[in-house]
Amino acid sequence: KLFFTDYGNTAKVERCDMDGMNRTWIVDSKIEQPTALALDLVNKYVYWLDIYLDSVEVVDYQGRKRHTIIKGIQIRHLCGLAVFENYLYTVNSDNLSILRINRYNGTDVQALARLDNAKEIRVYQKRTQMAVRSHACEVDPYGMPGGCSHICLLSSNYKARTCRCRTGFILGSDGRSCK
User: Fold this and answer.
1) What are the start and end residues of each LDL-receptor class B repeat (predicted)?
2) pLDDT, tens digit (0-9, with 9 covering 90-100), for 98-115
């Protein structure tokens, strides 16, 4: 799945399949400017930062179990969001500090470091990398991912895929080759 935010006409947090199909709103009320998103891949939770409401909230992948982690002036200038173990990590764009926030109750907010011009944050750790099972976009004997000549996108599950073409090409009638 692909998770993303939108704050155009209607602010929302959405999810879809990697090929763009099955687009689903998972949050569309009491939300104004969701600008950062982080996933808890193990427990299947979506965290987001709303810069208009000065809040960090969470829902499960279906949009249930919503609650506010932290709200208020202490998180007014945040950008970027990452989750690891018991904490959320974010950047305060006002003073360029990296903040750590307890993701279960919003307490224990600590400034960890300062970085010049930081706008985004990511946590890279072996435990956050999920094991990948075989899938429909694996490279075939001819070196083509999922048998697609350009781009292979997983569909509704790991056994289904959709082929797409790079800009300037169109998908052939076979659904795999690009012309």
Assistant:
1) 1-43
2) 888 999 988 788 878 877
Distance from the Cα of residue 48 to its chain's centroid: 9
Place of tokens 């429909």: 136
For 132-178, which CATH superfamily applies? Laminin (2.10.25.10)
Which residues have C-beta within 8 Å of that of residue 10, sequence separation ≥ 6?
Answer: 28
CA within 13 Å, CB half, 76: 4
95 pLDDT above the threshold of 80: no
Token digits of residue 4: 């993303």
Cα separation, 45 vs 42, whole angstroms:
8
Instruction: Considering the chain, tell me which residue range(s) the CATH 2.120.10.30 domain(s) occupy.
Output: 2-125
Tokens of 113: 């470091």
CATH superfamily for domain 2-125: TolB, C-terminal domain (2.120.10.30)
- Full-prediction pTM beyond 0.85? no
Tens-place pLDDT, residues 12-46 = 999 999 899 999 999 999 999 999 999 998 899 99
